[in-house]
Amino acid sequence: MAEGSRQLSAVTQNRLPQGFILASLSLLAAAVYLPGGPVWDDHTLIGGRLASLDLSGLMTLWRAPVGGGEVGAGYYRPLALTVMALASRLGPVALHLLAASLHAGSSVLLGRLLAPRPAGMLAAVVFAVHPLASEVLGWSSALPDALAVHLGLWACLMAPRSLVVASLLGLAAGLCKETGLLFLPAAWLAGWGGARTLVGAAVAGGTVLGLRSAMGVGGGWSMSGKVALVPAAIAWPVGSLALPWPLTAVRDLHVVPTISVAVGLCVALVLAWGARRSRLAAAGAVLCLAAPVLALPPTLDGYLAAERYGYPALVGLAWWLAAVVPARLSTRPVLIGAAFVGVIVHMLTGPRWWTDRALFEAATASLPESSYAWHFRGLAEAAEGELTSAEESFGRAVTNGHPHPHDLRLRTRALVELGRADEALAWMEAHAGEPHDAEAIAWWARAAFEAGAVSRAAELLSLLRVKEGYDGPPWVPALAEAAAEHGSSP
After folding, report:
1. Taking the model in full, what pTM does it have?
2. CA 49 – CA 64 distance, rounded (Å)
3. Mean pLDDT calculated for residue range 28-42
4. CA 110 vs CA 7, 152, 455: distances in Å
């Protein structure tokens, strides 16, 4: 043990300060994400809502859930959204810089927490450069994850020193994201701060739960018929700690790779085995498993085991490694090798987060059988005016077998706008027995009208009649009038 400590000292203390090394590696890994613009939910959450909020608007973030609907009603992250709203005034680069700085700060905090351990530096390096952090670094809407982990680590650091400060930091972490509440209980399990840490965890957690109740937060997550997906929903993020492949924004539970589930189960067993070694190892193992478990409601509701859901588990991995890895492995070659591999993977895969098109083309390349990946790719292509590519993507989403509810309509619309009404009509008639909303029926009717099947168009339009006119897009009344005129002409 003494020899391992001397080797670690030679790597960190006699060369460069440990914190400087960890911060530099974190920022080096994060640098590739800085050129990225808004992607995915950034357009609606940040560009469409947060960036335009005035002072009174910022206050509403503290009085209500993030959004409407059953899912949005379950999110209450007022502190993180306030920070995002203010930082968004400076543009996407500011948000990326903030995420990079938080990640670097978390790496430094981990280094401080684990410094007494011979493998502490190695563990902190693994966190700093682990590819599973890519979504948090590349997607501005994932900033709550970075904030929750950073504040949670501060709470762990302060737990042995001040109950009040640790409780406030734990509360702040929980107001950024629910996973922020995991850190103080994990710190107590690790033996940091004793009973006062557990008291701080109770105060922070109770306050967050009280605020959620007072603000009417309680999402209607859809869990029906999804119990069979729970093992994969947990195993995939856990397995990604050891095998972060495939790296994809759309981690679709319908097509989870078998190897990812198998690796996840093996990693869980290894974590449990190592947990016998010390309280720190047990706390790390619990954190690795608790992070995806706490994320089960949104994971199962949307069928997406997102990369960001594994970000808090990276902290648990670092704790576990610091407790279990032998001192003889904490050498300069091992540290350099881990840092090199992690940074290179970020540099090679990071550009996928620069644009929607790149992000979802990478998603379909990683999981070509994922209907959701093709759905999002089609949306990105349609937004760029690439309707031919978009209709092919929406069609692939449907034929893969588990499409988004709008994919039938989206392909129909793309075909109609491309002037391929006959093909659009045939497509919808082939799927006539499936449920359709008003907008889908409207595009079906338009395809029929433009294909010359006026009587079929009129039949479909009659389904859209409501008391005060027509349901569906604003052009439906004009289409109905044209169909009526065409049908009445000799």
Report:
1. 0.93
2. 14
3. 97
4. 19, 11, 69
